[in-house]
Amino acid sequence: VSQSYTPDPEHIRRWSDRHTGVGFDQLLVVAPPEDPEVDFRYIIFNADGTEAEQCGNGARCVARFVRDSGLSVKEQLRFQTSNSHIETTLKDGGLVEVDMGVPGLAPETIPCKVEEALRQVGEDSGARFELAGADGEAHELSVVSIGNPHGVLRIEEISEAPVERIGASLTIHPFFPEQANIGFCHVVDAGFIRLRVFERGVGETRACGTGACAAVVAGRLAGVLDERVKVSLPGGKVRIRWQGPDTPVKMTGPATMVYEGHLAVD
Predict the structure, then answer these.
(1) SS3 label, residue 159
(2) Which positions are annotated as active-site residues?
(3) What is the pLDDT of residues 129-158, one digit of tens each?
(4) Which residues does residue 46 pair with via DSSP β-bridges, in sequence order?
(5) Would strands 149-154 and 236-241 be described as parallel, antiparallel, or unpaired?
C-alpha cells in the first residue's frame, strides 16, 4: 500500500526458492482498491511468477497482515481479487474466517472443456468427469471453481497418493484450458478429510485453502460429507462449512506472523 511496485516474474521465482530465496508458494500484494466498495485490493502471484485468481490461505494471511500492520482496525474486511470479492473476519484465538463465495459447478465456470474428457460421470451430484492421464489410466474427478479451477480425486490412502505424477499430468490436461489445482482427498468420516494438493504453477503444496473448500464441496455433492468438515493438509488444519448449492463456502483457520524483512530489488 505504501509503495508502487509490480513484481517481476523472475524476481518472484528467485524469492520463492526455499533453498536460495525466502521460500513461498505464493507472493501476496496488498494494494489500494479499484472498487470503492472494498477495503483493499489483493494480488496473488504463484511461485513461477504467474498471477493467480484466488488463494484462500493467503486471504487469511493478508487479513492478519493488514490488521497487524495498522493498515486497518476493522474486524471485517472486504478484498478485491482479480475476478471477485472476498470477505474476512478476525476471530478469537488468532483465527480468521473467510467467505469464499458461492462455488462454481458448471463446466463453463471452472472453466473446462467437456469434449476433452473421456466421459461425464452422473449429472445429479455435481460435475464429475473421467480424464485420461499421461500414464494412460482413467482418473475420475469432480470439478469445482472456488474463484480458481479445481479437480478433486477421492483416494483410499493419502500417504501413498501419486500426487506429483498424476497431479502434474492433470493440472495441464487440455480439459482445463487455464490449468487447475488437483486435490487428492481421503474421506476419513463425514466430518473429517485428509487432503494433498498439486497446485498449478507451484507443484505439491503444504496447504491450499481453496483446495480444501473444493474438496468439501465435491464431497458434499457426492453425499459423503456433512455441512461442517475438518480438513487436514500437510501444513495444518482448517474448518470448512458449506450448506449446499447457491450458498457461500466459509473457511476458518489460523494466521500467524512468522517473520518480517526487507527485499532489495536489483
Answers:
(1) helix
(2) 55, 208
(3) 999 988 788 999 999 999 999 999 999 999
(4) 26
(5) unpaired
Which helix (H) or strand (E) element contains residue 199? strand 192-199
Residue 20 corresponds to which cell in the numbers above? 536460495
Length of the chain as a residue count: 266
The answer to whether residues 56 and 183 touch, using CB atoms and an 8 Å cutoff, is no
Identify the CA nearest to 183 among candidates 193, 171, 169, 197: 197
- Please name which of 144, 136, 186 lies closest in space to residue 166, comparing C-alpha atoms: 136
The Cα 84–Cα 101 span in angstroms is 9
Strand positions, DSSP E, 47-159: 51-52, 76-80, 85-90, 95-99, 119-120, 128-132, 138-145, 149-154
Q: How far apart are CA 30 and CA 87, in angstroms?
A: 15
**What is the C-alpha to C-alpha distance for residues 203 and 25, in angstroms, rounded to an integer?**
9
In this structure, are residues 88 and 239 in contact, taking their beta carbons and an 8 Å threshold? no
Average pLDDT, consecutive stretches of 10 residues, N- to C-terminus, the chain (266 residues)? 74 90 89 90 90 87 92 93 88 93 92 93 76 88 95 93 93 96 97 97 92 96 96 96 96 89 78
Query: Which of 190, 209, 195 has the alpha carbon at shortest distance from 100?
Result: 209
pTM across the whole model: 0.87
Helix (H) or strand (E) holding 43: strand 40-46
Q: Which of 200, 197, 202 is nearest to 215 (CA)?
A: 197
C-alpha cell, 120: 461425464
Gap between the Cα atoms of 118 and 121, Å rounded: 10
**Cα dihedral 188→185→223→170 (10° resolution):** -160
Residue 129, helix vs strand vs coil: strand
